Amino acid sequence: MYEFVTGPLAWFSFTVFFIGIIVRIVLYIRGLDWKADRVTYRVNVAYGVKGALRSIFFWLFPYGTHSWRNNPWFTFWVFLMHVGLLLTPVFLLGHNVLLRERWGVSLWTLPEGVAEVLSILVIVAAVLLVLRRIALPEVRLITTAYDYLMLAIAVAPFFTGLMAFYRAPDYSFWLVLHIICGEIFLVAIPLTKLSHFILFFLSRAQLGMDYGIKRGGMKGKGLAW
Amino acid sequence: MPEGNLCNKKTVDTKEQLQALLADKSGKQYYEEMNHLEVDREALWAAIKKSFKSRMKTWMEVCSHCGLCAESCFYFIANKRDPRQVPSYKIQSTLGELIRRKADVDNEFMQMCMDTAYAKCTCCTRCGVYCPFGIDTGIMFSYLRGLLFSQGFVPWEMKIGTGMHRIYQAQMDITSEDWVDTCEWMAEEYEDDWPGLEIPVDKQNADIMYTVNAREPKHYPEDIAEAAILFHVAGENWTVPSVGWEETSLAMFAGDWAACKMQVESVYAAMDRLKPKRMVVTECGHAYRATVIEGPYWAGIETGKTPVESFHYVEWVAEALRTGKLKIDPSKKIKEPVTYQDSCNYVRNAGLGEVAREIMGYIAEDFREMTPCREHNFCCGGGGGLNGIGRYREQRNVGLTVKRDQILATGAKLVVSPCHNCWDAIRDMEEIYKIGIRWSFLKPLLISMIEVPEHLKPKEE
Ligand code: SF4
Ligand code: SF4
After folding, report:
1. Which of residues B323, B345, B377 is at a domain's end?
2. Among B65, B66, B83, whose Cβ lies nearest the Cβ of A137?
3. pTM (2 d.p.)
4. In terms of CB atoms within 10 Å, which of A43, A155, A222, B349 comes out highest?
């Protein structure tokens, strides 16, 4: 089983992940339409690039925008969760050991304690975000089962990973489950709305170009996000 | 009855159609007919498939339902944090649902969409600034209005408005003759006080071609005279076109994109004909946005720019004050506390926040900002055509309370509002809530403050 999930299944999920992301990018860009969107993407390019970069940059940092600042706790936990979601899998010692075994390459790795804390924080953040969804009427109304499923898919690899790390009874069960959850996560990124992994950047760039080219970017200092 | 006599999918292109609509007082019959209007699902779905592309598709798909947009919407605040006023909810339950159902929807659903797209969203685009993914619900509602229009689901006044644009190339029934007459009349009326005052019509190669909002010739002709006086004092070489003088676009609010194109092309044709160095637009927000910001796209101009460079009135005023063409008499500056209403249509949609502050620096001693302001300002409450729609009066009036409270918090009793829509909304606000404020365009304030050179003063006899 272990061989299968770390072999063919891993190949499969990484392929879906990478090709899926490329397809997302291509489809997004091909679907842009200067007339319908009312943004001259190909003219005034310098303004467009500037607008796009500003629009991504400010939002990439916690408290970088009005919206982040207006919601300090939400921002804190959302960023923490995303940092954990991105850093832990890539720089985990265990993952890199596996990488070296298979392909003879590996990256710099996080100290195990840090990875452990990050994983726990991802789970804590997810729990808090779920509670927020339930507690705030304006968020509860718009929340769907799909949103909970996305959270579950994102958190499952961390939960199962920790169980394996703590050598819970049935270690190999948790390990295989962890790998499968990780692979589900990878596949889900291009195929579900977790595609915001990449679409965040494209969508932000688009609105940034809109502001940079048309909505005042050529006249003022640029929108104060 | 699939199509009504008044409420139908046809556009209004003749005076007879227009008369019939106008004769139906407050749209009684029109809305009655709307209850029986059939949805052409195939055509609707075909239109969506053609126009719903990656930008909006992504917005619709990636919304993580985080609710950050809730507090950005003035309707959410005005309606005591009603979750049904969250932008994400409003758009997902209308356009989102329409797409999920592949346009398999009924009359009731379409009317619900119309009520939401007009009475719960003024297309102010504020929420887009607060969403982590840059999801601009205002733009999507504007798109939804277009779909609704194509199926005949559009408020009565908006249907009339689009008809006016189609027939008169103006939002009101003002012909070219009416317009030119008004200009001549105003020039004569004010000539005694301002010797040499002119409103030059169709002058070639002027420095400025000035264009207006049809309400000015129709209801506030003094506004045209005031513009003339200020150009006169500033020594500008200016003109107005006899045709193509109207900047507004109720068609934009109604989602009648073909009429939008017709309207702005009439102005661009005037530019081509008169070859002015630049165009200046009167104190109107949506007019400027329609003709200067969005118009080039409707007309298919690939640079995204108007044929000659175009400026909003506030830009011209700031420039005139900066260069000394207009000088303010320091003793006549506004002494009382005064605040400024940023129009969404040119602050968030055209970046004209800074020039407004520059002007206030010249004319006011105690200028007080609203909180929030500039690109983050709230809609006045009357945007997106809402001021003019009887069916949604109540919702509009509730929406006004956010701006009311913003104004009250500044402590100022005078609001400078260089936008016809905001101006109306603030006037109505005073009428309804009686908070003891006054409001004004820039022109009359400036005229009361400028230093007039000796040679332009009337000769004492
Ligand atoms: S802020 Fe954006 S992502 Fe969040 S609910 Fe609103 S539209 Fe959706
Ligand atoms: S565009 Fe303005 S009115 Fe419409 S939902 Fe967004 S914030 Fe609310």
Report:
1. B323
2. B83
3. 0.96
4. B349
**Nearest chain B CA: its distance from A183 CA (Å):** 21
CA B116–ligand 2 middle distance (angstroms): 11
Inter-CA distances, B320 with B328, B383, B456, Å: 11, 29, 17
Same domain flag for B193 and B301: yes
Q: Which band of pLDDT confidence, cut at 50, 70 and 90, is reported for residue B458? A: confident
What local confidence, expressed as pLDDT, does residue B457 receive? 87
Classify residue B336: in a domain, yes or no.
Answer: yes
User: Could you tell me if B77 and B99 lie in one domain?
Assistant: yes
Q: Which residue's CA is minimally distant from atom 6 of ligand 2?
A: B127
**Has residue A21 got a pLDDT over 90?**
yes
- The reply to whether residue B54 touches residue A208, judged by beta carbons under 8 angstroms, is no
Residue B244 exposure: Cα atoms within 13 Å on the Cβ side: 20
Is residue A224 domain-resident?
A: no
Which residues in chain B are closer than 8 Å to A221, comparing Cβ atoms? 354
- B281 and B288 in contact (C-beta within 8 Å)? yes
Which pLDDT value is given to residue B388?
93
- Give residues (CB < 6 A) around ligand 2: B 72-73, 75, 87, 90, 121-127, 137-138, 141, 379
Q: Which atom of ligand 2 lies at the shortest distance from residue B122's CA? A: 3
Per-residue pLDDT, averaged over B178-198, amounts to 95
A52 assigned to some structural domain: yes
Q: At what angle do helices A72-91 and A93-103 cross, to 10 degrees?
A: 30
CB spacing of B81 vs A199 below 8 angstroms: no
> Are the C-beta atoms of residues B65 and B184 closer than 8 Å to each other?
no
Report the separation in Å between the CA atom of B109 and the middle of ligand 2, taken as the mean of its atom positions.
20
Burial class (CB in 10 A: 0-12, 13-18, 19+), B59: buried
Q: Is the pLDDT of residue B286 over 60?
A: yes
d(CA A153, CA A167): 22
Quickly list H helices, B92-205: 97-100, 107-119, 127-130, 137-150, 156-168, 176-191
Residue to probe by mutation, ligand 1, list B92, B133, B141, most atoms within 8 Å of CB: B133
A216 touches chain B (CB under 8 A): yes
Instruction: Determine the length of chain A.
Output: 225
Taking a C-beta distance cutoff of 8 angstroms, is the pair B383, B122 a contact?
A: yes
Convert the pLDDT of each residue in B408-438 to its tens digit. 999 999 999 999 999 999 999 999 999 999 9
Last residue of a domain, one of B154, B176, B207: B154
**Which positions 150-189 of A are in contact with B (Cβ < 8 Å)?**
150
- Quick one: pLDDT at residue B255? 97
pLDDT at B460 over 90: no
Q: Does B352 touch chain A (CB under 8 A)?
A: yes
Q: What's the pLDDT tens digit per position in A50-89?
A: 999 999 999 999 999 999 999 999 999 999 999 999 999 9
Q: Are residues B195 and B270 in the same domain?
A: yes
Q: How many domains does chain A have?
A: 1
CA distances from B267 to B81, B244, B271 (A): 42, 4, 6
The answer to whether residue A224 neighbours chain B at the CB level (below 8 Å) is yes
Nearest one of B193, B306, B175 to B246, comparing CA atoms: B175
Query: Do B310 and B183 fall into the same domain?
Result: yes
pLDDT at B179 exceeding the cut of 80: yes
Centre of ligand 2 from the C-alpha of residue A77, in Å: 26
Number of compact structural domains in chain B: 3
- Contact assignment for A224 to B53 by CB distance below 8 Å: no
CA dist., res. B271 & res. A181, Å (int): 63
The reply to whether B312 and B357 lie within a common domain is no
| Amino acid symbol at B80 | K
